[in-house]
Amino acid sequence: MVLKKQNFAEGEIAIFDEACVYKRGEYWQFRLWLPKENKYARKSLRTRSESTAIERGKAAYLEIYGNLQQGKSYFSITTKEGVEKYLSFRKRDVELGHIVKGRLATIATHLQHFLSFIGKDTKLKELERTDCENYFYHRHKSTNTKVKQVTVQNEQSTINALMKWLHKNGETHIDGFEFKKLPRLDKGNEAIRRATLTNDEYETLYRAMRTYCAKHNKLDDAELRVRKIVQHYVLVAANSGLRVGEQRQLRWSDVQLERHSANSTEQTLARIHVRAETSKVRTSRTFLCRNGQYFERLREIAKPTNADELVFTIDGENQITQRMMLYHWHKMIELADIADRETRDLVPYSLRHFMITQRIMSGLTFRQIADMCGTSVAQIEKTYYHLNDEIRLTNAVADYRRNADGTIEVL
Length: 411
Prior knowledge:
This protein is an alpha+beta fold. It is built from 15 helices and nine strands. The chain has helices at 50-69, 79-96, 101-118, 135-141, 149-168, 189-194, 199-212, 221-240, 244-248, 293-302, 322-336, 350-361, 366-373, 377-384, 389-397, and strands spanning 13-15, 19-24, 27-34, 39-44, 255-262, 265-274, 285-289, 400-402, 408-410. The strands form three sheets. The chain has a four-stranded antiparallel β-sheet with strand order 1-2-3-4, covered by helices on one side. It has a three-stranded antiparallel β-sheet with strand order 5-6-7, covered by helices on one side. It starts with 12 loop residues before the first strand and ends with a strand.
């Protein structure tokens, strides 16, 4: 490095013959010319002592020199530029199959909220650990719609993942923010129970969907086709427990129909293969799903031209959009007149909750359900087991008797 100015004025003390410290007012300052950036690096040494200023000046010089040797710039990029670099980095994770496109889109949305709070032109190296203390308050007051606490918590995790990556790459002086501690979020069974359809509600929804797709509505062919595809999406989701992303990316080559005899009746089952690249946990799985006839009916409606075509698609090429899915879902929920639907978090993911609850009540083990749904036994046990009064009642009245021979008989 070569200083623009090598002859120092009176009162300026040379540091390694290339930088200098000097006094401004009562405090000592540091200055170093950076030819590649065509600017002076300046910083306050925050001391009135000359000897301390010299020691801190040497430390500042060595730190800057070391960073420049690694190709790191001294002057800061903006938060907007930092977010763009991070998203470009995470895009490679999509290409490598480490995350799905939907996850990248969620990360981008989280970081847009961060930019609106912190400012797009804010310099990254000027950020302090306490700069996001009021982030939760900002998110609640800056939108007309109520933002859930869990949403803000997820955003904060994404923001600190960004900061950790930027710090590792020399773009920030901090590796994360100290967000204000939020009230403990109750993730108990009541919230999941309210987001799950009961048996009676599902039966009501089932009938409402038939009405919604009935010919007497005098719909044109295109609208009727869309409604029937969404109807069958709901039917498959309630029977398979597929995650939303898994189901939207399902292809006809992933589904094989089989005939099986059970309980003296012949049933149509669907053997579903979830590919690793479409799974949230990045692990493939294959399981049997009952009511495979829904796929038969959907095939007649969609008329796929090849096995690689998406199962749930309107144009044969692209996934059915989340906007379209939610529009018809809410229309059907409204038609079914589900109680308290405005305050319950009833979304297509609720059908996964419904399916898991039904399988538990049917007597399947947690391991069997976990294998079907691509989750852990611990997650099933923690989240679902005590959701239904029927299970609570069964637990309460369970009894046994001890026989004369010492054996125990469950009653």
